[in-house]
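RECORD TYPE: inverse folding
INPUT: structure tokens
STRUCTURE:
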């Protein structure tokens, strides 16, 4: 596998190398220059990808934060029975339901809201919920593993997006050069045929 990759790279370098080959046309040199520019821009795309990954990581760290005044888990009491499990249109059974519950906010005031609980949970049951600094329901904190995964995925997506865009641009540029080459070949063949016709 490594040998195949090495040969592929060697063939590409030989193809685009700007040597003194007299058979190289202007379009060949333009194509080589286009490949070089594409590689350089791809390398430069690593920096914004790292920046975006860093921003995603910092946002993830904020989503991990928990504690008084930020995000904390408190005990809520159900004010009503949660509905029983319901069979959906796809014959799937929903394992959770929503029911009204009451909890104490960090300021000491009472808060109420709809919380997710197992289907059929009875009123008066104590359940754990996550609230923010104002006492409103919020999502639980994310894990550090999720933060790292999000940062890595963001970085890779930026690099892949930049690579796809650059390759599309290079492909379009090569297509234009090929059209010029085909036109030049057609003109050369027409000229050669005309010369042969005159000599015959």
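DESIGNED SEQUENCE:
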């Amino acid at each position: 596998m490594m040998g195949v990759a090495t040969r592929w790279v060697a063939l590409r370098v030989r193809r685009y190398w700007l040597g003194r080959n007299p058979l190289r046309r202007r379009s060949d040199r333009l194509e080589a220059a286009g490949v070089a520019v594409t590689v350089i821009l791809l390398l430069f795309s690593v920096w914004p990808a790292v920046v975006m990954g860093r921003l995603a990581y910092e946002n993830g760290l904020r989503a991990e934060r928990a504690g008084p005044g930020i995000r904390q888990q408190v005990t809520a009491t159900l004010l009503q029975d949660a509905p029983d499990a319901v069979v959906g249109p796809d014959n799937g059974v929903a394992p959770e339901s929503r029911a009204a519950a009451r909890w104490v906010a960090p300021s000491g005031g009472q808060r109420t809201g709809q919380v997710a609980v197992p289907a059929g949970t009875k009123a008066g049951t104590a359940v754990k919920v996550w609230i923010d600094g104002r006492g409103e329901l919020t999502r639980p904190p994310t894990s550090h593993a999720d933060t790292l995964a999000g940062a890595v995925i963001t970085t890779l997506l930026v690099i892949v997006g930049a690579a796809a865009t650059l390759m599309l641009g290079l492909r379009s540029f090569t297509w234009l050069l090929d059209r010029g080459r085909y036109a030049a070949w057609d003109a050369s063949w027409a000229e050669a045929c005309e010369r042969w016709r005159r000599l015959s």
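NOTES: The longest strand covers residues 96-104.
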